[in-house]
Amino acid sequence: MATDTTVEHKLLGTAAPNYGNKPMADLAMANIEAVGMPKWTADDQAFAKLVQETQKRKVEPLKDKVTPLRPEREERVPTGGGSDDIGDIMWTVPTITIRFPSNIPNMIGHNVTSAMAMATPIAHKGAIAGAKAVALTVLDLMTTPEELTKAKAYFDTDQQKYDHYKPFVSATDVPAIHVNDDYMRTYRPLMEPYYYDSKKYDTYLDQLGIKFPNPPTAPIRKITPPKSSGADTTGG
To answer: 1, 30, 131, 173: least CB-packed within 10 angstroms?
Structure first.
């Protein structure tokens, strides 16, 4: 300011550390336990093992018991969280994160190995279980005022006593969607032939012509990539 220097900036992204609401987490945990884990079939377990073996990951069956709620830490240390704005939401209103069993154990996050289960009954069953737990928790908060009061009290006292939220995003900042322009221009035309057609196929596996769980003794079906649509692949 003393030198009359002005600065222009462009914010690419920001994320506040997570801070889950304990009363809401306790409420959700009770509903998760009430819903229980999905009923895995032999085919589900066989597919999970097949993926783990072919990807050289630790072999571990699909879990049949609910994972206990993570204990609250006495001293909170910012450790990041999901690569999105969930932390910013958590510092604005009472918020929790619910995880549901839609994937195969020991896969790599943000990796193709974590996408292999997504069109299978494993993902569908896990998502249904998660949706039930979320719906029950929302109903409890809407129909039981004391639960909502406890959640707000924790947010106003325990959480705000720890720290206060100051957003980095200003009124003039816009989403940095330009960062992925080249990628989307290149890959979207290549993905379009594989979009799921729910009017024609009962499942995405049917559309791909894949028999679940596709055991090792069955031939592995190779998918021929679509011809190039002339998309710009130079990144320029």
So the answer is: 1
**Tens digit of each residue's pLDDT (9 = 90 or more) over 108-163:** 988 999 999 999 999 999 999 999 999 999 999 999 999 999 999 999 999 999 88
| Structural domain boundaries enclosing 94 | 22-175
User: Count of CB atoms within 10 A of residue 204's CB?
Assistant: 16
**Which candidate, 115, 128, 103, places its Cα nearest to that of 38?**
128
Query: Which tens digit of pLDDT belongs to each residue from 4-42?
Result: 999 888 888 888 888 899 999 999 999 999 999 999 999
Task: Quote the CA–CA distance of 99 and 95 in Å, as a whole number.
Answer: 13
Work out how many domains the chain is built from and give that number.
Answer: 2
* 132 and 168, same domain (yes or no): yes
Tell me how long the chain is.
236
Distances (CA, A) of 227 to 163, 169, 190, 207, 223: 54, 42, 8, 19, 12
Domain presence at residue 17:
no
202 and 161 in one domain?
no
Distance CA 68, CA 118 (A): 24
